[in-house]
């Protein structure tokens, strides 16, 4: 993991990923959003978490973008495309990203940060181990976190889990 020194273009795409996370949160889904950007800087596809709304725990945005990329892009285009994402990929999404041969990943907050935030909130541990993208896809160009956006994401995750706790109450 390299601390991100994002340029203006990186920040623009990352802010969009964070806005998609906010959209997920408003819909009752966990706040995760991702944007797939082609080699020429064009936004190719966007997705947000849909786990709650679709009742499918695999509906992570990064997994959806990997699937989109394998259908719509050549191997060379995939290699030259970047995924901007609010949160570092989970192992499932890292694996999908690696299998389809996508290029760099830029994230606002790391998986380790999320694990720490959820622990602080008293959320039960995830059934899947927290790994870095590099643990799953060695050698990939991965940049993050970006502190000012990570703070906003921490507030969103906190809000999601506080609401989930209220909903559980009889
Ligand atoms: Zn995932």
Overall description:
- The protein has 170 residues and is of the alpha/beta class.
- It has one domain (8-165): Cytidine Deaminase, domain 2.
- Helix content is 51%, strand content 14%.
- It has 8 helices and 5 strands.
- A 5-stranded mixed beta sheet has the order 2-1-3-4-5, with helices on both faces.
- The model has no long low-confidence stretch (mean pLDDT 95).
- The structure holds zinc ion.
- Zinc ion (ZN) binds next to helix 3 and helix 5.
Number of helices: 8
CATH homologous superfamily identity: Cytidine Deaminase, domain 2
Number of strands: 5
Query: Unreliable runs, pLDDT <50, ≥5 residues?
Result: none
Shape: globular
Across the major sheet, the strand order is 2-1-3-4-5
**Ligands bound to this protein structure:** zinc ion
Proportion of residues in extended strands: 5-15%
In this structure, how is the largest beta sheet organized?
A: 5 strands, mixed
Please write the string of helix (H) and strand (E) elements.
Answer: HEEHHHEHEHHEH
CATH class: Alpha Beta
Features:
Cytidine Deaminase, domain 2; globular; 170 residues; binds zinc ion
